[in-house]
Design brief:
461 residues, alpha/beta, Rossmann fold, UDP-N-acetylmuramoyl-L-alanine:D-glutamate ligase, twelve-stranded mixed beta sheet, 19 strands, binds ligand NPW, binds potassium ion, nucleotide-binding, Ribokinase-like, NAD
Length: 461
């Protein structure tokens, strides 16, 4: 099932729509608190629970949670530095029969943070900041309800002390912050608690693990996809991309390079000479250019030839520094996928006159202005294609090694050569990259990562 990722405004709309259909806010809060309590009991397994309740409906959820836990025989403390402000939260406060203190020690066991949810809109100050500091210092098992209380739900900005949580329970739907830096790594395991909301016109989702199919019975090397990797000034990076591409499904991987490659595997076909001639091979189903390309006139010339060829292509690394409106006009942007890291994204945005505050907004605006499929890499990888945004579970931080971007580009090129769908290829490439990293961890080289793409493929067949 595709799981939507909502902004605060979209979340409020979905809740309003539920109320228009006859489910009132009290009912939604009961569902949220009751369903979250099931997870909490699973984690607490009998240990005492402290619930921290804030002034809004996130605090209201906290009182419902405390009530359900108390009725189930749990020892529950509630710490609420202020009285609830919203009517529904006040009702939940009154329904809770147990004791509430305005401050106090956190008992070891489990702490459930319901100070603020998606309504947080400014810096967290005392008394709330002191409680979050206490929570951060406590050895207890920490659960954030909806979002960690110091995290702004749309942009993942950190507005106060941010403890490291063991579990974050998203209520009703995922929020953007669940998948964005800098807040994401503090959230621990993340689980979605459904409360029966319905979502229409969703434009952002969590990428679901892909299903990769084996070659058809009548497959041969050309109809399984021929990826041509166009090299340039430096020989190493395109070779690394080729090592990954050969293990990601394409039936044939060629390297168009004028270098000698004594380290290249025997099965990699290397063609030298006229690039225009090489590109005229009608059997090529996708191209990759950028790793090791260089940024001089010769590199620009090679990029122009790739774009003129009209074939689906992945543009990475140096190609992202060279790409400009004049070059892009030679191609059909719909068939192109760019894979910028933060620096390359900034460069592309400058070139195409895009200004936006966050990485997410920059990626969306760039895709909008250019029509490109944008895979904005990093710990919080974001894919934007034709108005749709996909977020991904976090990959291993061991991926922060030189050359791992070349491996990703190779996988993406290989998937694109296989079926020609840029969005699907980009999603598959991120999952395969993350899985290869998991299998190769810890402390792998990019070459080892490229080799781990083969067992990673087995995880998605
Ligand atoms: N609506 C629904 O149907 C459902 C909603 N659900 C739950 O509601 C949550 C959203 O609730 P919410 O909108 O009441 O906001 P919430 O996150 O509790 O906090 C806002 C409160 O804090 C205040 N405030 C903000 N920043 C502050 C600061 N820095 N320092 C101090 N105060 C600050 C702000 O008041 P203000 O002072 O701005 O007037 C307001 O009182 C959501 O995450 C989910 O858990 C579920 O039960 C499902 C059904
Ligand atoms: N801390 C991290 N956590 C998860 N993934 C990371 C992290 N750092 C980098 N990556 C991933 O590793 C790859 C690095 O790509 P890139 O910056 O182009 O490296 P290079 O240019 O050395 O090949 C990207 O796919 C990125 O998403
Ligand atoms: K919270």
């Amino acid at each position: 099932m595709t799981e939507p990722v909502l902004t605060v405004a979209e979340m409020r709309e979905a809740e309003k729509a539920a109320m228009d259909r006859g489910t009132n806010e009290w009912e939604l809060m009961q569902r949220a608190g009751t369903n979250a309590a099931q997870w909490i009991m699973r984690m607490a397994a009998g240990r005492p629970v402290t619930v921290l309740c804030g002034p809004g409906n996130n605090g209201g959820d906290g009182y419902v949670i405390a009530d359900v836990l108390g009725r189930s025989g749990y020892e529950v403390d509630v710490i609420a530095p202020v009285e609830p402000k919203s009517e529904t939260a006040r009702r939940a406060r009154s329904a809770f029969q147990g004791g509430v203190s305005s401050d106090g020690a956190l008992r070891t066991g489990v702490a459930v943070d319901c100070l603020f949810g998606y309504g947080l809109d400014r810096k967290v100050e005392e008394p709330f900041s002191k409680i979050l500091e206490k929570l951060a210092a406590s050895p207890c098992y920490k659960i954030a309800i909806d979002v960690p209380s110091a995290v702004q739900s749309d942009a993942a900005r950190v507005l106060g002390p941010l403890p490291r949580y063991d579990l974050t329970l998203a209520l009703g739907a995922w929020k953007q912050a669940h998948f964005l830096m800098p807040a994401m790594p503090a959230m621990g395991e993340k689980r979605l608690v459904t409360i029966g909301l319905e979502f229409e016109d969703v434009s952002s989702t969590v990428s679901a693990a892909p299903k990769i199919t084996s070659p058809k019975p009548d497959a041969h090397k050309y109809n399984r996809g021929l990826l041509a990797i166009v090299a340039g000034a430096m020989p190493g990076a395109p070779l690394l991309a080729a090592e990954a591409a050969m293990r990601a499904g394409a039936g044939y991987v060629k390297l168009f390079s004028d270098h000698s490659h004594p380290d290249a595997p025997a099965e990699l076909v290397i063609e030298q000479g006229s690039l225009a001639d090489a590109l005229s091979d009608g059997r090529i189903s996708a191209l990759l250019i950028g790793p090791g390309l260089g940024r001089d006139d010769a590199a620009r010339e090679r990029l122009a030839k790739v774009l003129e060829s009209g074939k689906p292509a992945v543009l990475d690394a140096d190609a992202l520094h060279l790409l400009d409106p004049e070059l892009l006009a030679m191609a059909d942007a719909k068939t192109l996928c760019v894979t910028p890291h933060e620096g390359e994204l900034a460069k592309l945005c400058e070139t195409f006159g895009v200004t936006a505050e966050s990485k997410l907004d920059r990626a969306r605006a760039l895709a909008d202005v250019t029509g490109l499929t944008v895979l904005a890499k990093g710990p919080d990888t974001i894919l934007v294609h034709d108005g749709m945004t996909s977020f991904f579970p976090r990959g291993s931080s061991w991926l922060s090694v030189a050359g791992s971007g070349d491996v990703l580009a190779g996988i993406l090129g290989s998937r694109l050569a296989t079926h020609g769908d840029p969005r699907r290829a980009a999603e598959e490439s991120v999952w395969l990259h993350h899985e290869a990293a998991r299998l190769a961890s810890p402390a792998f080289s990019a070459g080892e990562l490229a080799h781990a793409v083969k067992p990673a493929m087995a995880s998605f067949l």
